[in-house]
Specification:
Blueprint (H helix, E strand, L loop, with lengths): L1 H74 L5 H24 L4 H26 L6 H9 L4 H78 L4 E4 L5 E4 L1 H6 L23 H13 L3 E9 L5 E12 L6 E9 L1 H19 L1 H40 L5 H32 L4 E5 H19 L5 E5 L4 E5 H18 L6 E9 L5 E7 L31 H11 L4 E5 L5 E7 L14
Parallel strand pairs: 7-9
Antiparallel strand pairs: 1-2, 1-5, 3-4, 4-5, 6-8, 9-10, 10-12, 11-12
Helix pairs in contact: 1-2, 1-3, 1-5, 3-5, 9-10, 10-13, 11-12, 12-13
Length: 602
């Protein structure tokens, strides 16, 4: 608890500390740099001021010399327009330049004093120049010497220049100092800012790592929740107050044709190609959200994105979102289309049965009479033939020659074969006339039971013979269990029988679902096979492609298979090559499409 409190306090102080650090390292160096820059600009301004004084003083001295030399030339009688122009140019400039110098050096007492002396000397010299130029006579040598030596100004110009040079050097030194100070402050500010940036980068990296860890934890938690939600095979969606889909599971996306990776945020009516564009459904969902009502097993008919009409049971309840205080609706949908189809089929069958009870009773009576006739009128003579042949064999005993024994064996074998033919005919007749009792049939279990029985019989006949089975995953279908068991018994029995001469025998059973939803089964063996030009005879009554001496049988088994599959709405065909085994393929309609159909001619 103490550590948590310290961490909380530190977390609260981080932002103010960061602001203070920014103020200390960014704003303070900025202000200092600005101060140094101002000082540097002031120093530069003073240097420029000194240079301006020197320039103005040099210009003034040049004008004075220009005026004096022009005046001397004119006094000595030199008649030149150029001399007059030079005097006219220089005379009016001397006064303003002297006033400007006085103004520029007003802040320096030394320069003011020197300029006062310079002004006095200059006035006296200008008076001499004026007197010399106004006189009509030529000046004497003494007058010229007096002008040049009595009122000297060159030493005053030199003193003023020296003073400005001294000021200039001092000001340049001050400017250099200000520049160095500004550079130092700039480097210090740069270093401090680099330290701050490093600290901020470390802080941001640390915060980013913590955020990434938190995001990873959130993603893991969300992933676990999503996996759990996606394992539920019922469509589930979370709807907000604006009927927008906040979340949905894989079953919802599959049923309503979500063709994008993430369709969250879309309107519910945009899902399923308009399946949810039902005012009554939307009103019920709004009642759940606004009034807190719960919706249970509300039956609606929807045509989803795959253009299949489905009957759905909707349930919805209000809940609070975990990440906000907003309310949402948890919506679940159950597809009961198959149940409704079964119910309709049952009702239709019941109506048919109610109208045909008498007809079925008549047919049953006829079948009973036929069965009685076959069982008694045909079986009794066969039993007599078989029984007297056996008695005759015992009566003759050892006295029977080879022909007699052969004749007796033919009589007994023919009687047994006739009995098997009668049994198979009864089965064939019953398969074509008895009503279908459709129910859920586990084909996997049925094939396993049939395989066990065939293995046992094969082992009893030939213990050395090996049969290798490869049975794939098989579905649950809707069919008449007894009839469908007869299909597998005949098809697998043929595979075992006709591969008896192959060592080892290999029998493969596989399954696939076709595009229209039908069930397609495959049974292959490595047995004797047959010529495909006689394939149309396989499924006829008493049709055989091998001699009885090669393989036993009555030729009714595959005809019975065809009859059962025809009544279920399916079909059967075969592919083979002599000596390379055979493959039988047969189909059943998709679940819910089976009806008691008439036998088809193939």
């Amino acid at each position: 608890m103490f550590v948590s409190s310290n961490a909380s306090t530190w977390s609260k102080l981080q932002l103010p500390g960061l602001v203070l650090a920014i103020a200390a390292i960014v704003i303070a160096p900025f202000l200092l740099t600005q101060t140094a820059a101002v000082s540097s600009r002031d120093a530069q301004r003073l240097v420029a001021h000194s240079l301006q004084v020197e320039a103005r003083l040099s210009s003034l001295a040049a004008d004075v010399r220009n005026l004096e030399s022009s005046a001397l030339g004119a006094a000595f009688g030199v008649e030149a327009e150029l001399l007059n122009e030079r005097m006219d140019l220089s005379r009016p400039r001397i006064g303003p330049q002297l006033d400007e110098l006085d103004e520029l050096t007003r802040d320096n007492p030394v320069q003011q004093r020197l300029l006062g002396q310079f002004r006095s000397m200059l006035d006296l010299r200008m008076d001499e120049v004026a007197r010399m130029t106004d006189s009509e006579r030529r000046p004497t040598t003494e007058e010229v010497a007096t002008l040049l030596t009595r009122y000297p100004i060159h030493h005053l110009v030199q003193d003023i220049n020296n003073e400005e040079h001294r000021l200039l050097e001092a000001r340049q030194a001050l400017a250099a100092t200000a520049m160095r100070r500004a550079d130092l402050l700039g480097w210090f500010a740069l270093a401090a800012q680099l330290v701050l940036l490093g600290t901020l980068a470390w802080f941001a990296l640390r915060q980013g790592q913590q955020r990434l860890q938190a995001e990873r934890d959130a993603v893991l938690a969300s992933g676990r929740a999503t996996i759990v939600l996606d394992t539920v095979r019922e469509p589930i969606a979370l709807i907000d107050a604006g009927t927008r889909v906040l979340m949905y599971n894989a079953a919802f996306a599959e049923l309503y044709g979500v063709d994008v990776d993430d369709a969250r945020g879309q309107q519910l009516v945009d899902f399923g190609g308009g399946a949810w564009n039902d005012p009554q459904v939307l009103r019920r969902l709004t009642d759940v959200l606004t009034r807190g009502r719960e919706l249970w097993d509300f039956e609606v008919t929807q045509r989803t994105a795959d253009d299949v009409e489905r009957i759905m049971l909707l349930s919805a309840r209000r809940m609070v979102l975990p990440d906000s205080e907003d309310m949402a609706v948890l919506l679940t949908a159950s597809d009961i289309s198959a149940q409704k189809i079964h119910e309709r089929q049952i009702r239709e069958l019941n109506r048919q049965l109610e109208g045909k009870v008498e007809q079925v009773s008549d047919v049953n009576r006829e079948l009973e009479a036929f069965s009685y006739s076959v069982s008694h009128d045909l079986r009794a003579p066969l039993r007599h033939i078989a029984g007297f042949a056996d008695k005759l064999g015992r009566h003759i005993g050892d006295q029977a020659d080879e022909k007699s024994t052969h004749y007796l064996e033919v009589i007994s074998g023919s009687a047994r074969r006739m009995s098997a033919l009668i049994d198979d005919l009864l089965v064939y007749s019953r398969l074509g006339r008895s009503a279908l009792r459709q129910q859920m049939v586990d084909v996997q279990s049925m094939v396993t039971d049939t395989r066990a029985m065939l293995d046992s019989n094969a082992h009893a006949e030939n213990p050395e013979h090996r049969i290798i089975w490869d049975v794939g995953h098989l579905p649950v279908v809707i069919a008449d269990e007894n009839m469908f068991r007869q299909v597998w018994l005949n098809v697998l029995g043929n595979a075992v029988k006709y591969s008896a001469n192959s060592e080892p025998a290999r029998i493969t059973v596989s399954y696939e679902q076709t595009d229209d939803g039908s069930h397609l089964f495959h049974v292959s063996d490595n047995g004797a096979g047959f010529d495909m030009q006689y394939a149309n005879k396989l499924f006829g009554v008493f049709q055989r492609l091998h001699a009885p001496s090669e393989f036993s049988g009555t030729g009714i088994g595959l005809a019975s298979v065809r009859r059962v599959l025809s009544r279920h709405g399916g079909r059967i065909w075969a592919e083979s090559e002599p000596g390379k085994g055979a493959s039988f393929h047969f189909t059943l309609p998709a679940t819910g499409d089976i009806a008691n159909q008439p036998e088809k001619t193939q």
